[in-house]
Amino acid sequence: MEDLKRAAAERAVAEYIESRMVVGLGTGSTASYVVHRIGELLASGDLEDVRGIPTSSRTAALAEEVGIPLVSLSEARPQLTIDGADEVGPDLALIKGRGGALLREKIVAYAGQDGLVVVADESKLVESLGEGTLPVEIESFGWEATLEALATLGCEPELRMDYTGCAYMTDGGHYTADCLFSSISDPAALEREIKDIPGALESGLFVGLAFAAAVGRSNGTEVIGVGA
Q: Which range marks the domain in which residue 190 is found?
C-alpha cells in the first residue's frame, strides 16, 4: 500500500501543483508523500516559489525539513489543499481525522479557492461512509456530556487515548471522540447534526470540499472527479 500511496501522491502533485502556488499541506502518512514530492521538485528546480500552509505541527516540521517555505492563513490563502483520507465515498464525500488533525485540515481546505484534492490508495474507496470510526474533535471541558450527546445520534463514541493512556490531545488542545456508526447514509445531514452539539467542534465528515482524488491502484493511478 505504501507504493500505491506514493504513486497517488506523485500523480496529484504532477496534476495540480504549479510554480508560485500556495498549497494547503495535509497531515498523515499519505500526505507526507505529497510534502516529500513537492520538496523534491523545489530542490530540482522543476517547481519554483511554492509555499505551504501546514495543517499540523508534524506537517510543518516535515515541510521545513524538505525545504518548503511556510506561510499562515493570516498571510495567504491556499489555491488548493492536498491531503489524504480515511474513507472516500460517493461524490468524494470523505471521512478524515483518524490521524488527529481534522479541525485544522478542514479549516485549511475550506479556505482554499478550489477546495481539496484527495490522495489515497484503493483500499480507502467505500460504497458508503462509516465502515470505520468517524472522528469528532471535541472541547475537553465537559467531554463526558459531549460523548453522551453524540451517542444520541446512533453511534458508539469513545474518547481517543494516546500511547501513555491519557486522552489524545490535538495541536489545538482538544480531545477526539471516535464514533462508530452502523452506517452513514446522509453524510451532509450527519455533519450538521454533530455541529449542533455544544462541545463538538468539528466532525471528520468532509462533504463538498473535495473536487478530485488521485487513487493508487495495483494497475496504476486513477484521477477521479466529483460525480465520477
A: 134-200
Cα 59–chain centre separation = 12
Domain count, the chain: 2
Q: Which residue has the cell 507526507?
A: 32
- Out of 10, 87, 105, 202, pick the active-site residue: 105
pTM of this prediction exceeds 0.85: yes
Amino acid at 12: A
Active-site residue, 105 included: yes
> pLDDT of 6-48, one tens digit each?
999 999 999 999 999 999 999 999 999 999 999 999 999 999 9
Q: Strand pairing partners for 225?
A: 212
The CA distances from residue 50 to 23, 40, 79, 213, in Å, are: 7, 12, 11, 21
Q: Is residue 43 part of a domain?
A: yes
Grid coordinates belonging to 137: 474533535
